[in-house]
């Protein structure tokens, strides 16, 4: 693919004030790759994501999105970087006062010069991709949690950004919807060259989609494993990694 | 404006020639040639332009089976908007009864294009919202009002029962919540109540003094103003301030809990939300409103005395006049009324919070409704109280 990686993280320290969650992270997400961030609850996965997408300023280090440093960018430059990726939040975070179609067209209205009908068609395509086309006129509170998540993915894709951050996209979805979502993600990545950064716990989904994973750990505050998930499952000597990928209970390890 | 400026470099990044071109081969054959980087920014005006030309062409060749070729062989990259464009052109062609052929589309885009089949689903008929007639909307408004009144009555019943319960089981009342609510609604409200009461005292004295001076009755301003403050204005000012402050706060707090299913969690855990959430807050309202009212009374009367010094009424004269006219019953009457206001303000705030719908906007609506209902009910209670005072002389 292109020489510039989609995301490059250099010596990143994530935390809040004096509470450091992750230290000195270094990793690269290649363009077109499905990159999965793993780790137990509370190890800072979502915090890392909010540092990658520029929502929070990291305590130290740099995040380069397509070669541009989001940690130092300000004003119009920052705005431009921000539109180069889409973000789906764990709870969906749809705008409650708008129906699904308006949720998706909102960012188009701000950033593009398409006509209303064109934006609606584009938004319907996005909703169709996540299987929500029949629900376009529903309000977020009228649909289930899983549907809200899928609608949030459609909204994240509104401007066809090259990078999509998904925070636990398949958690709480039924197996069929989850598999459909995986196949959509694979399609978008393999055929359209989207880069995905996914936080996930769902092993089945991880094996299905991930090109590369990093596993974070609370104790070491860093990356304890990096690579292909299937290879890690079969070959990793690290007991924590082995335990995670093979779903072994804590008791059995102790 | 700044946002679009920030994005414009992106839009201009495309080469000068448009990403899509309309080529008319003959009267029944046309071609749309797509090329370069097709994305939501580069397509912006081209999309409309191509579609306009297509519509004009379709109109001319109506019923003659026109053939449109969509040539994507020059495309370097295609994203979702490119697909949407293709689908838009295809749908227009099919609706007009023409043929549509795609050539040169990179095979990697094929699976994604198939996901949108059948494309007719992407063009739903426009939804026409039925207009409600005047009679229907009046009926619905009346029904809403009646439902609301019924809800208020039911709530009053539940709340009374639970307040009685709290007297019987004082140990089981959540006093921690009570203290928090009392601090928030009471101590934190002291500065604003003090300020408003002070200014009302000043304004009232000035206004009364202007009129009374004409009759040489300046010495009666003190008694008049103090009586008004103790019996009416002190409780009213305090209650209205609390309606704006605490009632809205209670509604927002309980409303957010409702939105987050916290209230449902209480119910499914077998706990009464009224007992758990509302009783401590109403008890706090009952405690703090008379205290705040007394504080407002004192500040107001003091500011009135200060103001009247300007008109040459010494403080001691003011005091003597006030003591002659204002009896302890007047002060008590005001405080009893204030207690009722306290119940109204806190209970209505909690009720509106419990009635919150879903979503962030619902919390705002609840807070607004809490303030409006509180003020209406305060005035209503005040009116009833005035009638009772008139009849009983209290």
Structure description:
The complex is a heterodimer of chains A (254) and B (394). With 254 residues, chain A is α/β, with parallel strands linked by helices. Chain A has a domain at 7-84 and 161-253: 3-Layer(aba) Sandwich (Rossmann fold), CATH 3.40.50. Chain A has ten helices and ten strands. Chain A has helices spanning 45-52, 75-82, 100-111, 116-129, 145-156, 175-192, 203-209, 229-235, 239-245, 250-253, and strands spanning 7-16, 19-29, 34-38, 60-65, 68-69, 85-88, 163-167, 195-199, 212-217, 222-227. Chain A has a six-stranded mixed sheet, with helices on both faces. In chain A, a hairpin with a 4-residue loop joins strand 9 (212-217) and strand 10. In chain A, helix 3 (100-111) runs parallel beside helix 5. Chain A starts with 6 loop residues before the first strand and ends with a helix. Chain B has a four-stranded mixed sheet, with helices on one face. Mean pLDDT of chain B is 89; it is low at 1-15. The two termini of chain B are 65 Å apart. Chain B has 394 residues and is an alpha/beta fold. In chain B, helix 10 crosses helix 12 (328-354). Chain B is built from 13 helices and four strands. Chain B has helices at residues 2-12, 44-60, 80-95, 110-114, 134-168, 175-185, 190-213, 221-259, 262-268, 273-310, 315-325, 328-354, 360-392, and strands at residues 20-26, 29-38, 67-78, 99-103. Chain B has two domains: 2-122, STAS domain (Transcription Regulator spoIIAA), CATH 3.30.750.24; 158-392, no CATH class. In chain B, helix 3 (80-95) links the parallel strand 3 and strand 4. At the A-B interface, helix 2, helix 3, helix 4 and helix 6 of A face helix 1, helix 2, helix 3 and helix 13 of B.
């Amino acid at each position: 693919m292109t020489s510039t990686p989609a995301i490059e993280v250099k010596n990143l320290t994530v935390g809040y004030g004096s509470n450091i969650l992750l230290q000195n992270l270094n990793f690269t997400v290649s363009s077109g790759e499905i990159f999965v961030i793993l780790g137990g609850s509370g190890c800072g996965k979502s915090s890392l994501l909010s540092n990658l997408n520029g929502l929070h300023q990291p305590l130290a280090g740099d995040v380069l999105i397509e070669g541009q440093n989001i940690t130092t960018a300000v004003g119009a430059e920052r705005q431009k970087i921000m539109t180069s990726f889409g973000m789906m939040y764990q709870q969906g975070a749809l705008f409650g006062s708008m129906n699904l179609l308006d949720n998706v067209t909102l960012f188009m209205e701000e950033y593009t010069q398409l006509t209303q009908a064109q934006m609606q068609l584009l938004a319907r395509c996005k909703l169709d991709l996540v299987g929500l086309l029949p629900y376009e006129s529903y309000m977020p509170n009228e649909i289930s949690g899983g549907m809200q998540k899928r609608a949030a993915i459609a909204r994240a894709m509104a401007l066809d950004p090259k990078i999509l951050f998904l925070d636990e996209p398949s958690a709480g979805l039924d197996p069929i919807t989850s598999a459909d979502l995986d196949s959509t993600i694979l399609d978008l990545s393999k055929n359209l060259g989207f880069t995905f950064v996914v936080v996930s716990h769902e092993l089945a989904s991880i094996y299905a989609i991930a090109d590369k994973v990093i596993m974070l750990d609370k104790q070491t505050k860093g990356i304890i494993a990096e690579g292909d998930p299937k290879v890690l499952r079969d070959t990793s000597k690290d007991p924590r990694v082995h335990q995670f990928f093979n779903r072994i209970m804590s008791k059995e390890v102790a | 404006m700044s946002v679009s400026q920030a994005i414009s470099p992106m839009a201009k990044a495309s080469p000068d020639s448009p990403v899509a071109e309309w080529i008319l081969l003959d009267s029944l054959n046309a071609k749309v040639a797509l090329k370069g980087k097709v994305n939501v920014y580069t397509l912006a005006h081209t999309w409309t332009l191509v579609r306009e030309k297509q519509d004009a062409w379709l109109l001319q060749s109506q019923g003659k089976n026109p053939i449109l070729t969509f040539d994507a062989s020059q495309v370097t990259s295609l994203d979702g908007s490119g697909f949407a464009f293709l689908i838009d052109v295809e749908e227009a062609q099919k609706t007009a009864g023409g043929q549509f052929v795609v050539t040169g589309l990179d095979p990697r885009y094929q699976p994604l294009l198939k996901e949108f089949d059948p494309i007719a689903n992407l063009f739903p008929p426009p939804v026409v919202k039925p207009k409600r007639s005047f009679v229907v909307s009046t009926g619905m408004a009346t029904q809403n009002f009646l439902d609301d009144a019924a809800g208020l009555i039911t709530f009053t019943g539940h709340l009374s029962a639970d307040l009685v319960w709290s007297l019987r089981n004082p140990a089981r009342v959540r006093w921690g919540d009570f203290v928090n609510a009392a601090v928030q609604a009471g101590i934190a409200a002291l500065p604003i109540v003090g300020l408003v009461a002070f200014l009302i005292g000043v304004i009232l004295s000035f206004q009364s003094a202007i009129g009374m001076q004409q009759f040489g009755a300046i010495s009666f301003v003190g008694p008049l103003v103090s009586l008004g403050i103790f019996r009416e204005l002190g409780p009213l000012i305090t209650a209205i301030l609390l309606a704006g402050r605490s009632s809205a706060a209670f509604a927002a707090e309980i409303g957010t809990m409702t939105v987050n299913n916290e209230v449902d969690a209480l119910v499914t855990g077998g706990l009464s939300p009224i007992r758990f959430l509302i009783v401590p807050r109403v008890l706090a309202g009952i405690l703090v409103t008379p205290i705040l009212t007394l504080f407002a009374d004192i500040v107001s009367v003091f500011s009135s005395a200060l103001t009247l010094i300007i008109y040459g009424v010494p403080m001691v004269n003011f005091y003597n006049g006030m003591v002659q006219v204002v009896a302890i019953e007047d002060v008590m009457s005001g405080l009893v009324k204030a207690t009722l206001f306290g119940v109204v303000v806190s209970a209505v705030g909690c009720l509106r919070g419990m009635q919150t719908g879903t979503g962030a906007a619902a919390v705002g609506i609840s807070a607004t409704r809490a303030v409006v209902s509180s003020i209406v009910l305060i005035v209503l209670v005040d009116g009833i109280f005035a009638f009772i005072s008139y009849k009983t002389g209290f």
